[in-house]
Records
---
Amino acid sequence: MAALVVDTHAAVWYLLNAPNLSKQARAAMDDATDSGDPIYVSSISLVEIVYLVEKGRLPRVVIDRLTAALSDPGAAFVIAPLTESTALAVQRISRNIVPDMPDRIIAATALDLGMPLVTRDSDISKAG
């Protein structure tokens, strides 16, 4: 299995072992983990998670598990920084199809890295 990029919700559900994550998404993330390939989390997802924890929409354990996974050299999770090339790739994600800027950044991260994106977001999926 190749490395992949995950949307914010996919990272959260995987870390919480939540049933919301589809079997295909879980299998892809498990395969990446088992084969030593990275699971890239866009830096904007980290910001979103911090924000949602602050608002009480996610439990604190999510940020704790994510930061633990990011600091563990044996874990698959890796932050994909918002680089200049990723920022410019946002132009390739139609604002009419994906109006939410964090979602556009996550999709642009996958495009820029040339990797598949694990998401359930229908707008992102429609954008290709």
---
Amino acid sequence: MSEQIEKALEEIRPMLARHLGNIELVNVENGTVYVRLLGTCHGCPLSQLTLKAGVEDLLRQRVPGVTSVEAI
């Protein structure tokens, strides 16, 4: 599952990089994907929108078993 998640995150990274940000996979546990937002994404007021409407939606579509994404 981690490999599939990393592959999907590679699709998201160029969008984040345009805003000088990035995302890192930290852990996967019981369908929840834990990520770390890096660069300008860390602390950005729109980071939760990016996380839920962007990252979580994509991962739920592409990776069977993913139920949610949480930033740590």
---
Amino acid sequence: MSNNVQPVVSISEYFDLFVDVTLGVGLVFELPVLIFLLTLLRVASPRFLLRHSRYAILGIVLIAAIVTPTSDVFNLLLFAVPTCALYFAGIGASLILVMKREGKPFPWKKFIGIVLMVLIAAGLIVAAILYFHLHFSRKWPFLTK
């Protein structure tokens, strides 16, 4: 006869986890505002932020590893990928600010072309997944039939 005793988890532990995750997500969504403010105050420039983006991505992944409640890669990426996107969105906003400050026009045609190329590539990947009836798995290869 085996004794299957479940560990008792108190409500305060769930509340602490909820507060930690909510606080982390709230701080992440302030990242573009912080980047824009630092550029407005001339503390950082878009060139500096792009040149040091590898360190920012490393910091984002480390913060995501601390804030996410579980230790699996999926939850870490679920937090880190949007944070990196917000980081680069903040750099884009600061670039618009700097170009406006210097009186230069923003290259909207080039920007829209790059965004369209990224969206088309993402659409082709999704279409390939749907066409070949692939699904995600936890082990390598991550896309299987």
---
Amino acid sequence: MCGRYGRRSDKQRIAETFHAAVDLSELYLAPNDDISPGTIQPVVRVNDEGQRSLEAMYWSFKLPTRFVFNARSDSLLKNGLWKAAFEERRCIGLWCKY
């Protein structure tokens, strides 16, 4: 699995679709058909008050020597890298723990 994907929308359209506040005026995000791990991409986050915002984040976990982006369901709770992230931030139905 390569981890690449395409994004058809710019930051303003993503924010409008998810009813999120936009504070990325310095970041230009045009649609892109070839997004790879290690690039900065827009992510919709929900804060403690339940408000959504659009923030720039790496598409992957950045380790000292490489980018890691692929988790396998059969080893998710065995691998130290993914275990904590899954247990602390997993979604159950429509409710997410952040």
